[in-house]
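Q: What structure does this chain adopt?
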Amino acid sequence: MFSLLRRLRRDERGQALVIGAVAMLVLAVTVMASVSIGHGVYEKIKLQDAADAQAYSLAVKEARAYNFLAYTNRAMVVHYSAMLTFMSYVSHALYLDMTIGKIASIAQYIPGIGAVFAAVRQVIKAWKAAVEGVARVLIPLLSLLNLALWLAQEAMMLGTLKDLMLAANADTLRGTDPRAKPGASMSKGAPLDVLRGKPSLNAANMKNFLHIIDDGPSSRAASFDLLDPTGLTKRANLLNKNKNKLSDPDMAKYRLLMGNLVNGARREWTAVGKNVFLIGRRWYLGIRIPYLPGVTINKVADSQVKSFDENFEDNRRDQLYASDDIRIQFTPMFNPLRPNKGWKDLLNLNFRAAADNQGGFHQTYGNRKTNDHHQWMGLTPFFTADTSFVDPWHNHFSYPCNITVLSKDMIPQGAGSPKQPFHLENLRGGDGFMTDSRSGKLDDASTNVRGGFLDITWALAGGNGKRAENFREQTGGMMALSVGRAIYHRPGDWQEEPNFFNPLWTARLAPAKTHWEEQALRNVIPGLHTAQSDFADALNY
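A:
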């Protein structure tokens, strides 16, 4: 018996088995931990992809809405230019009727050639009646079309505003990561919480989308008017005769801006006429013989959108104005050394037409105006931008940003929840592994962390402490954040501020560290300040 014990004590066979068992355990734990970490990284990549896709998608929607405003505003400018062109035709027809037409009405009695002048007179009369009739129909029709375009702008902005509320069933999330869901900071529950006035990232995204609008909320405002988010009621005052006053800056900014744009878009014939002798809108005839009497006949033209003060002629407001004027000057002696001296007005003939909310007028020869020819409601409402150049690099030229925060439930919740692969849950139960050798210094009874136990599940994601517990409770153990931005940029030499008249808005992902809602980001990312101060590019991608 004793000899057997002595032999077993001296026998070295079987030691490799013990070492192999320990090595296999360590190798198994290492492999499973690597697989578990790889699975976690894969899930985080999918979640981050979903956040990036959602943020970029929202930025695309914002850029698309701004480009829609630009296209419709440009269409309005084209419509106003068409109205102005037809009023130019009307004033030119008045000029032809009251000059060449009058001459033809007398010359038609000349034998032999009278029939020609009679035909000319009939053609001018027919042309005048045609352009007046078309103008009376076209101007109200185009005005109603501009009104419809404005209402379409309002609908586009409100529709985009609705799309900015991130919900769990968003198509982008379902198509990228079906397990992703909006973070608790997005809406504090349901998207309808935005309508209940509860602060959230959804509300911040909507406010940032609106703040570039001239009558939208300020970027520093805590929220926005839920009953009138786009400032519709302010712009609608352009249709109210009692409130649409040029002395009111809120009205003047719209009327003067659109009027200047329309005047700047005029064609040459509409603006000043083309040089065609006698029948054109602009021509010149002069007899200037040195040291003899001289005569000049100068035919000039002008067409423009005018805006009047409310005290002018019972508040005509805006006016489509066109004129064809003749100025005849005489000098008893033309001095070639001083060609512009000594001239006196011999006769001024004014042929003008206008459309406004008082019925417009025709004016022939002198200053007498005949009313009720062309009714025009005036400039209709439209969207315009109010960009900020206060600290532009920090405020990124008022470009709207949107924050997307997503979370994913990585922690099994009870027996009915799906098991997460490769999490080695069994190594945390039972008696543990070498629990008798633990020091107990790092044991935490509240989270059931004890020495000798191995837990590679997401049950302790974020570490210990109350903040980590809150993180796991709100996110399910995993969170991703992304920022999208709608930007305005003209290719090449870019020197203009963002506006709603050129459809040059596009979308991109943006650095989180330059976002408007820094306080909201600090709440989402506790280490944001440290990352920005100690690692300048930690949140820049």
